[in-house]
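Q: Convert this sequence to C-alpha coordinates.
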Amino acid sequence: MVRIQESASYRLDEIYRYTRDRWGVKQADRYITGLFEAFDGIEAHKTPSRPIPADFGVEGCFFRYERHFVYWRRLSNGDIGIVTILHERMHQIDRFREDFGLL
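A:
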Protein backbone atom coordinates (compact mmCIF):
# COMPACT_ATOMS: atom_id res chain seq x y z
CA MET A 1 0.00 0.00 0.00
CA VAL A 2 1.17 3.53 -0.78
CA ARG A 3 0.86 6.16 1.94
CA ILE A 4 1.20 9.84 1.15
CA GLN A 5 3.01 11.51 4.02
CA GLU A 6 2.19 15.04 5.18
CA SER A 7 4.88 16.91 3.28
CA ALA A 8 4.10 15.04 0.06
CA SER A 9 0.40 15.76 0.49
CA TYR A 10 1.17 19.46 0.82
CA ARG A 11 3.37 19.33 -2.30
CA LEU A 12 0.65 17.52 -4.28
CA ASP A 13 -1.78 20.31 -3.40
CA GLU A 14 0.77 22.92 -4.52
CA ILE A 15 1.45 21.10 -7.78
CA TYR A 16 -2.25 20.76 -8.53
CA ARG A 17 -3.02 24.43 -7.82
CA TYR A 18 -0.05 25.70 -9.82
CA THR A 19 -0.80 23.46 -12.80
CA ARG A 20 -4.52 24.28 -12.71
CA ASP A 21 -3.88 28.02 -12.54
CA ARG A 22 -1.28 27.93 -15.30
CA TRP A 23 -2.61 25.28 -17.72
CA GLY A 24 -6.14 24.43 -16.63
CA VAL A 25 -8.05 21.73 -14.77
CA LYS A 26 -7.61 19.00 -17.41
CA GLN A 27 -3.83 19.32 -17.35
CA ALA A 28 -3.75 19.46 -13.53
CA ASP A 29 -5.92 16.33 -13.31
CA ARG A 30 -3.72 14.54 -15.87
CA TYR A 31 -0.52 15.41 -14.05
CA ILE A 32 -1.76 14.37 -10.60
CA THR A 33 -3.29 11.17 -11.99
CA GLY A 34 0.05 10.36 -13.61
CA LEU A 35 1.86 10.90 -10.33
CA PHE A 36 -0.49 8.51 -8.53
CA GLU A 37 -0.05 5.92 -11.28
CA ALA A 38 3.71 6.23 -10.80
CA PHE A 39 3.27 5.79 -7.02
CA ASP A 40 1.26 2.63 -7.63
CA GLY A 41 3.99 1.36 -9.96
CA ILE A 42 6.66 1.39 -7.25
CA GLU A 43 5.61 -1.93 -5.68
CA ALA A 44 5.37 -3.68 -9.06
CA HIS A 45 8.76 -2.26 -10.11
CA LYS A 46 7.08 -0.48 -13.02
CA THR A 47 8.35 2.85 -11.71
CA PRO A 48 12.15 2.66 -11.82
CA SER A 49 13.69 4.21 -8.73
CA ARG A 50 17.21 4.86 -7.56
CA PRO A 51 18.60 4.97 -4.02
CA ILE A 52 18.71 8.41 -2.42
CA PRO A 53 22.32 9.68 -2.47
CA ALA A 54 24.21 9.22 0.79
CA ASP A 55 24.63 13.03 1.02
CA PHE A 56 20.97 13.27 1.96
CA GLY A 57 21.53 11.31 5.17
CA VAL A 58 18.41 9.10 4.94
CA GLU A 59 17.53 5.78 3.40
CA GLY A 60 15.01 5.61 0.62
CA CYS A 61 14.60 5.95 -3.11
CA PHE A 62 13.56 8.50 -5.68
CA PHE A 63 12.35 8.70 -9.24
CA ARG A 64 11.68 11.45 -11.70
CA TYR A 65 8.17 12.13 -12.96
CA GLU A 66 8.19 14.75 -15.71
CA ARG A 67 9.35 17.95 -13.92
CA HIS A 68 9.37 16.52 -10.38
CA PHE A 69 11.44 14.21 -8.23
CA VAL A 70 9.46 11.89 -5.95
CA TYR A 71 11.17 10.67 -2.78
CA TRP A 72 9.88 7.57 -1.04
CA ARG A 73 10.87 4.98 1.52
CA ARG A 74 9.68 1.65 2.82
CA LEU A 75 7.79 2.13 6.10
CA SER A 76 8.22 -0.19 9.09
CA ASN A 77 4.95 -1.97 8.25
CA GLY A 78 6.15 -2.64 4.69
CA ASP A 79 4.03 0.06 3.04
CA ILE A 80 5.56 2.60 0.70
CA GLY A 81 5.69 6.13 2.11
CA ILE A 82 5.79 8.98 -0.38
CA VAL A 83 7.90 11.45 1.59
CA THR A 84 8.05 14.48 -0.65
CA ILE A 85 7.81 15.67 -4.24
CA LEU A 86 10.19 18.39 -5.39
CA HIS A 87 10.24 20.36 -8.63
CA GLU A 88 13.43 19.95 -10.63
CA ARG A 89 14.34 23.61 -9.95
CA MET A 90 14.21 23.27 -6.16
CA HIS A 91 17.52 22.81 -4.39
CA GLN A 92 17.12 19.11 -3.74
CA ILE A 93 19.24 18.48 -0.64
CA ASP A 94 18.06 21.48 1.41
CA ARG A 95 14.39 21.02 0.51
CA PHE A 96 14.61 17.26 1.08
CA ARG A 97 16.16 17.71 4.54
CA GLU A 98 13.48 20.27 5.39
CA ASP A 99 10.68 17.87 4.41
CA PHE A 100 12.29 15.03 6.35
CA GLY A 101 12.66 17.29 9.39
CA LEU A 102 16.44 17.12 9.28
CA LEU A 103 17.14 20.88 9.35
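Strands lie at 2-4, 50-51, 61-65, 68-74, 80-87.
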